Amino acid sequence: MASVFSMIINGDLPGRFVWRDDEVVAFLTINPVTPGHVLVVPRAEVDHWEQLDPDLFAHLSRVAQIVGQASATAFDAPRMGLLIAGLEVPHVHLHVFPAHTLESFDLTKAEQNPDPAALDDAAERIRAALADLGYADRATA
Question: What are the catalytic residues (predicted)?
Answer without folding.
Answer: 93
